[in-house]
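Figure 2 data, in text form.
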Amino acid sequence: MAIVRFFASILLTLGILQSPFAAFTPMADRAYTDGELTVAPDETKYVKITAIDEGHDIYNPPADDAGYRYGPSMIINADGSIDAYLSAPGVRGEWDWIIYRHSPDGGKTWTEEKAVLQPTADSVDFYSCCDPGVIKLGDYYYIAYTSTTNENGTDNCVFAARSKNPDGPFEKWNGNGWGGKPSPIVVFTGDEDAYGAGEPSMVELNGKLYIYYTWKDTAINQTRLCIADATDENWPATMQDKGVAINHTYNMASLDSADVKYVEDFDKFIAVVTCDRFTTESFIGLYVSDDGLSFKESSAAKVNISHCCHNCGITSRPDGHIRLSDGVYLAYAYGDEWAYWPTRMNKVELSLIDAPDFSETDKQNLKTPVTYAKKSWYRNFVAITSENQVLEVKKSKISFKPEIHKVDSERIYKTNNIGVEFSNYDESVVKVIGGRFYPQSVGETYVTATWKGYTEEFLIRIME
């Protein structure tokens, strides 16, 4: 959930727990060799989730300021490695960016981070890109995400982007195809002061793409569903509304978004949420469904779960399927200090049960001591950003020099444009010579800046 929007303008730092960048194998070269499961579905069964250990932190905030990584979407690959996408603070007035990390060893160590999805200048997602839900279909990784044009962080909509590489670059759905200014794939139609639509997750099954998303309106907290043609690269154009999948009745204001997956071993869909979020009594809730269209409450995990947890995600294969033999991991943000949230990962077990089991809600979660420590990790650059999303310049100006900043784990630094290359601009509007821009005519053009493999797109508007 984009829960720090109102406060994000004061958060100028990004914090990172990191280790030296590890090489990884492209997904196209990985293959699962365990074959298909033959399962006799049993609609009388429920699913229990159990955290089998206290887990470990995969992110800690910096020592001197706030920081967070929340809402993880995680792919577990055939070689046991994990691709993770998380919401992180943005800069330049942007609330959140989506950060990518790779673990070569099942979550024990992680590569340095990289910002893979940032807002597009002068567009309907210019405030944030957050709450990632990731799936791989064919040659493409698709990220569905949340954004809004409302300065209060309400009236959210769902957007999508795609890339052939897990770490980008990503091109956004524009309403007709991929690339250019973004257009939402789900538009909120309720009270503009309500949260809106967002926090998506996706599952592919039998050629259909199930797109789940939060719908929060006045006195409404639901997970809704659209189904699209998973074989069509332009699947957003094929989306059909299937209504309400989960009507969250448990203490509505305290319940987080649902991360939905399909468990092959059980022939059932599951959805994980955090309940009593941000409180000392928080725990993980699980819903179950036999058809992916309608879910019912199934179980809860509180033992070994950190208190004050929120915004959880569970690992799956690239198509949103869980195979128990792969190992199953849950991750979530937690902490009792606002916007200072570590991210923890627990190994979990899923099992079939005869009736719903909420017995753990009466037990203790991990309350004291809070096991994270404020640390200053060595810094690496995660992105570049232009000083302004939109730079307006008079045509009479002889030349100008847009400032490109490099962004590390805590703050931004000027590059002085050393090593920065500019491309993909309209030469009838501006010309670029030696890093300086020369106005040619009234108009506007997007410009792509590239520095050491990082890219950023900003808008230049030449005015009379």
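Caption note: Residues 1-29 have pLDDT under 50 and may be disordered.
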